[in-house]
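Recall the central idea of this unit: under ordinary conditions, the amino acid sequence of a chain determines the structure it adopts. In this exercise we apply that idea directly, starting from the sequence alone.
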Amino acid sequence: MLALVTHERQARDRGWWSALARCYTPEATIRTSWFDGTAVEYIEVSKRAFGHTPSNHRLGLPVIDVNDTRAIAEVPMIIEMRGTFRGVETDLTAHLRMLHRAARGADGWRLAASVAIFDHDTMTPAIPGTAPTLTPDDLQGARPSYRMLALWMTERGYTVAADRPGIDRPAELTTLYDDAYAWAGLPR
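Accordingly, the structure predicted from this sequence is:
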């Protein structure tokens, strides 16, 4: 299981699409800030975005709970992006965790569902003394768990929904975790 979650992000960051596809079950789903759909669709969209919206994913140590052929893995993650934001070279850092459902079949462990759970994010100039122009209106109504990421992605043409799981909505997280652990037949 550990190798599965680390190889999945390595393949995504490196553009190793065949290796990425091998990480998922045929019916796997993925829900991130900018994507909500099947793993097959995610890989196709990721191919088109590769190089245009570069990102690196730094993983923390996962917590993995296994029950026979099903497992839950929670992986702390930091997404780092560098790019131009409103004419200024800027670094975006998003702190989150991925909640994966995994199933073991004849070909080993594969991810059946992955959901990003957002914590907080920051945007800073890459060069001291410069800063992108932001106003309070830019962040009006934005979720504090992923407001900078949403702004960054929206300015790049992506649609970022306001209903993504985040620590600012604890009741929704309780339901998300309860459903995942029930799917795996695991106590919480």
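The domain at 2-184 is CATH 3.10.450.50 (Nuclear Transport Factor 2; Chain: A,).
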